Amino acid sequence: MKENLLKEIIPLTTEDCYTIFTRVKKDFNFPLHYHEEFELNLILNGTGARRVIGDHIGEIDEYELVLVGPNLQHAWFTHNFKGKELTEVTIQFPLDFLDEKFLRRNQLSFIRNMFEKSVRGILFSAETAKKIAPVMLQLGKKQGFDGVLEVLSILHDLSISRNMKLLSDATFNNAENFTYNSRRIEKVMGYLNQHFDKQISLNDVAQQANMTQAAFSRFFKTKTGNNYIDSLNEIRLGHAARLLIDTNRSIAEIAYHCGFNNISNFNRLFKKKKGVTPKVFREDFAYGARVFV
């Protein structure tokens, strides 16, 4: 499907550190799209509008603040928005805004980790959005170095904020290669990503880590925050979402291809994770990919 999506060309030259747009508008009229740059998007008073980030679909509240990583498809749609007008502030900055070697410095570890997670899209809490909103609204008035310092300050504050939420499944945007600070966990995640379409037992993954099943279960939960079944299902659902968007395969065929042997269980897990059924999910993305005229 990506070849049918709009690839946005950002008005950002190689001499610019960032660009910012502030708009007051009555609705959303830009289609599902992607671009090579990072994007930090703030929306105020847009309650009821719909957010689409990767394979995530959700309805937004009064305060919306999302960091979108490079080449991650995204858009916001009017949906159930009933207000008279909303405010949107968008900051876009290139991949090399902060040099990779510079990001490896200890003092920038939180920003580096945030950038790595942004390939899935990050939704910040309403409390964080309220705190950052006044700064972003004033950023357009700053020039030169003062503006760059403010962007860095915003990124730092966001990177240490609490209750940020990852939106898209890792496998949807080839974002499964996270650093878990554990070679055992990385080996297990690699195994799950390679064999997600097969039946995988707890013993199978425990053997990958050279641990007993009980010890592995505790270890995996501590390192990832999930049990291995939840992680495996997330990987499978990410692949399923991609196939729903990119192919015309039937929902049943996709479910079985991604390791689900029970179509009812697949539909239940998919709706629990995405908030909609696979059928509605496919229809929503087909709608979002159309270019508005």
Explain this structure to me?
With about 290 residues, the protein is of the alpha+beta class. Helices cover about 40% and strands about 15% of the residues. It has helices at about 100-105, 110-115, 125-140, 145-160, 185-195, 200-210, 215-225, 230-245, 250-255, 265-275, 280-290; strands at about 5, 20-25, 35, 40-45, 50-55, 55-60, 65-70, 75, 85-95, 120-125, 165. The strands form three sheets. A six-stranded antiparallel sheet has the order 2-9-4-7-10-11, covered by helices on one side. Helix 2 crosses helix 4 (about 145-160) and helix 6 crosses helix 7 (about 215-225). It is globular.
DSSP helical segment count: 11
Q: What class do helices, strands and sheet pairing give?
A: alpha+beta
Q: What value does the Rg take, in angstroms?
A: 20 Å
Ranges with pLDDT <50 over ≥5 residues?
none
Helix content: 40-55%
Estimate nothing, just give the exact number of structural domains: 2
Question: Which outline best applies?
Answer: globular
What is the CA–CA distance across the termini? Answer: 20 Å
Strand composition percent? 15-25%
The third-level CATH topology of the largest domain is: Jelly Rolls
Provide the CATH superfamily of the largest domain.
Regulatory protein AraC
Major β-sheet annotation: 6 strands, antiparallel
Give the strand order, joined by hyphens, for the main sheet.
2-9-4-7-10-11
Known CATH architecture of the largest domain: Sandwich
What is the string of helix and strand elements? EEEEEEEEEHHEHHEHHHHHHH
> Quick one: how many beta strands?
11
Q: According to CATH, what is the class of the largest domain?
A: Mainly Beta
